[in-house]
Amino acid sequence: QQQQQQLQRNQSQRLPSRSRNHNILFSRQEVGPQLRHHSRSSSYRLVTPSTSSSSTTQQRPHHQHPRSSTQSTSTSSSHLQSNITSPNTRAATSSVTPQMASTKDKAQDEENLLKRHWSEYVVEAGLGDFPIGWEQRFTATGITYFVDHINRTTTFEDPRLAAQERRREEALSHEAQLPKYKRNLRRKLLKLGHLFQHLRKKDAQDYGELIHKEYKLESDDICVSRDSIFEDSYRLVMRMNPPELRARLNVSFFGEAALDYGGVAREWFFLLSKQMFNPYYGLFQYSSSDSQLLEVNPQSSINPDHLSYFQFIGRILGLAVCHSHYVDGAFVMPLYRLLLGKDVSLTHMQYVDEEMYNSLTWTLENDITGVLENTFVDEYEAFGVLETRELKEGGADISVTEENKQEYVNLLVHHRLLRGISEQVEALQRGFTEVVPPGWLSMFDERELELILSGLGKINVDDWMENTDYRHCTCKDNIVIWFWKLLRALDDEMRARVLQFVTGTSRVPVTGFRDLRGSQGQKKFTIELIDSASVSSLPKAHTCFNRLDLPKYPSYKDLEQKLMQAVENSVGFGIE
To answer: Contact 285/424 with Cβ under 8 angstroms?
Structure first.
């Protein structure tokens, strides 16, 4: 054992260093006497511990030999002598026999092996590299076997598989120390951002132009009027193809001089979502269970172009996910689930009709024999008229029993949640997946998708204050103290309007104020004191940089009056 260990140490010191050629052939002269004393084959294949190289050569099939998996070289020489033959054995033959002629042919084949390129020896690269000192060969009948030059043994078992099994057993032995999965929305959002970054590069290579040795894809400018923002946006967005939508947004408003470094786009999403979700257009309606949540209007077909509008809204939602912006509105939870391509169940009924949810839950949890006399029919009111719909073929003649009540509940829930809106939801999904490839959001659930699209509606002033930078002032200056005092005194609506005035959106990132986005990624909220500004002037906001410029007002009352005047009366952008 000590001799073997010493031999292994000596062998590891003689292995080549890491190189571009991950699989290297050595002839007798290249290897030298250090290796020839334990193996007399004509060629050696010693693999350095590096990444496997791909090969385009034809590979021999792997056959499993029925004999014992491991045997020494000396005991298997009769079976493998056509491939591993000692020069001394060849010299001892005194007469020319068919066996000797065959041996000469084999020797010639071995000499030809030295002329083969190293890539021809790469097989099953997906398993990774061989351990140091291992080589793959073939018997005269084409059966694969493996040679261990360090221990001077041969085997029919692939050593890479044994190494994988050993690593698996080691991992199982440490399973108790394996950290458990924890929900981390921020890390998943970073992963999603990397996916979009890679997709934009691919889009640029496929559809862009080569500019200064770099492929670039520029999208059309989105220039809209504030008075007709919905119609203008619909016309421009629907004529753009998906790669252009995923490229950098460049939004502007008619008659306003502004450069879009993120702030203009945020205000565009904010104003556009107000119009998209306006019940006046008949596309959405407020949920009966929560007047703050929106659901698809089953009677949206009154507008003949309603499916095209839903596709447009799906694209806008996809743009919000792709470019990390927020829309000002929230849907009922089942709609988020349908956007993810998932089915709905009884659990989601409580977000739409809590009374129906409680009734169906009671039905499943209790014996209904002799209690309910329902059939597989749903009754509902549409335009003031009571209508009925069979949940399955012949449902009017099928009674709900203890045996089939689960099927009845499933069909009724599916019909209630998708009644009259299946086409609208399909159009919404189609527009959404044109921007966000299907499956990319599979790691998110419906609650997380709500936060991704709408952010946080509740503003935490403490979190806001902890993630604020100051320029030409400190948190101890009077103007800064008065600002935070004013924010705490405002109600939720006015706080949101102050945030929208400075950043372009009233929504807070799901991970808090630390992840506010500016023109170059994350940019914290910033307060800058302008000593040169007149105390009669109003505060000024730089939405692309999340920065609020404040003159040095002499009192708290002056700050309150000027800031509220700026927030309530500001319209449009300008270039400074």
So the answer is: no
Query: At which residue do the structure tokens 């002329």 appear?
Result: 115
Q: Coil, helix or strand for 310?
A: helix
The model's pTM is 0.61
CA distance 357 to 334: 13
Phi then psi for residue 96, to 5 deg, are: -80, 120
The Cα angle at residue 182 between residues 177 and 184, in degrees rounded to 5: 140
- Asked if 443 and 501 count as a contact pair (C-beta separation under 8 A), the reply is no
Rounded distance, CA 213 to CA 4, Å? 56
Q: What is the pLDDT of residues 467-476, one digit of tens each?
A: 889 988 888 8
Q: List CB contacts of 412: < 8 A, sequence separation 6 or more.
A: 360, 378, 391
| pLDDT tens per residue, range 496-534 | 888 888 887 777 787 788 878 765 667 788 898 888 888
The residue assigned the tokens 């391509």 is 341
DSSP 8-state class, residue 510: T
**Amino acid present at 323:** H
Radius of gyration of the chain (CA): 36
Whether the predicted pLDDT of 99 surpasses 80 = no
CB 545 within 8 A of CB 522: no
The three-state secondary structure class of 132 is coil
Q: SS3 letters for 173-234?
A: HCHHHCCCCCCCHHHHHHHHHHHHHHHHHHHHHHHCEEECCEEECCCCCEEECCCCHHHHHH
pLDDT (0 to 100) of residue 65: 39
Question: Among candidates 493, 516, 501, 487, which has minimal Cα distance to 326?
Answer: 516
Instruction: State the DSSP H helix or E strand holding residue 378, giving kind and residue range, or none if neither.
Output: strand 377-382
Q: State how far Cα 531 lies from the chain centre.
A: 46
List, as one string, the DSSP characters of 34-69: HHHTT---SEEEEE-SSPPPP--SPPPPP---SS-S
Angle, vertex CA 230, rays to CA 226 and CA 232, nearest 5: 75
The region of weakest confidence among 146-150, 294-298, 369-373, 445-449 is: 369-373
Q: Which residues contact 374 (CB under 8 A, 6 or more apart)?
A: 399, 400, 408
Summarised one tens digit per residue, pLDDT across range 168-188 is: 777 777 665 667 777 788 888
Q: Cα 567 from chain centroid?
A: 37
Look at residue 24 and give its three-state secondary structure: strand
Residue whose C-alpha is closest to residue 416's, from 374, 328, 468, 353: 353
User: Crossing angle for the helix pair 492-503 and 263-276, nearest 10 degrees?
Assistant: 130
Catalytic residue numbers, as ranges: 544
Report CA dihedral (258, 260, 262, 263) to the nearest 10 degrees.
Answer: 10
Q: What is the pLDDT of residue 36?
A: 34
Instruction: Evaluate whether 246 touches 199 at the Cβ level (below 8 Å).
Output: yes
Q: What is the pLDDT of residue 318?
A: 94
Mean pLDDT of all residues in the chain?
75
More confident residue, 275 or 45: 275
Which tokens in the block code for residue 430? 């189609």
Which residue type occupies 217? L
